[in-house]
Amino acid sequence: MHHDEEIYDDRYYLNLPTESGRIANLLALMEFGDEVSVCEIGCAAGDFLAVISPVIRYGIGLDVSEPAIRAANKLKSKHGLANIEFEEVSASDFALRDGNASRFDYVLLLDVTEHIDDVTVAEVLQAAKRLIKPGGLLVIHTPNLTYWLEQLKDKGIIKQLRGHIAVRNEQQYRALIDEAGFGEPRVLGLPHYRQPLRFIDQLLSRMPLLGRLFRSRLYIVVPSPGDERQ
Prior knowledge:
Elements: H1 10-14, H2 22-27, E1 37-41, H3 47-52, E2 58-63, H4 66-79, E3 84-88, H5 91-95, E4 104-110, H6 118-131, E5 132-143, H7 148-154, H8 170-179, E6 186-190, H9 197-204, E7 217-223
């Protein structure tokens, strides 16, 4: 999904942090299996699919960025990921190909939607809806605009991360998901994945009223249309 060549160049993908705790936090929330197929939209350098490769049947990562797919294919070759593929293609084009409708148990949007505007998010959600099997799940992980640090960025007090053009809150995501025709999502507010912010968030998120300001990430699980099981 990342396509601004001034930002998302080879150096960007080669320098993505892989030991920050983000992947470990996500794995603690997901359950895969050896018969599961996964499509990750906006896969970047492919690190998440590389980690889950041993516990799924098949995975494919999509990204519109040539440097992203180049980095991902280097990772695939380095680790011999026989059951993982990467392709430079938009989610919309991929979803319309013969054989891809209702193909995947999981469609993942992990730290992607904050990089794209509402119109593009709507297109991606429509593609995801086509790709998910009945009973499958769409999983979104993204920064939370309500988080105190994101509020400071939004007000221009501190600098926003490069490429984060559309950090949203839970209500905005619920509206986008509803407009796309999905079922009711389950939304969790997560602490930051890096210390000491993680400790602070875990401690203060329990506070009445103010606790919502200390949920750094939104983890959104969306059932396939017509399926309310999560």
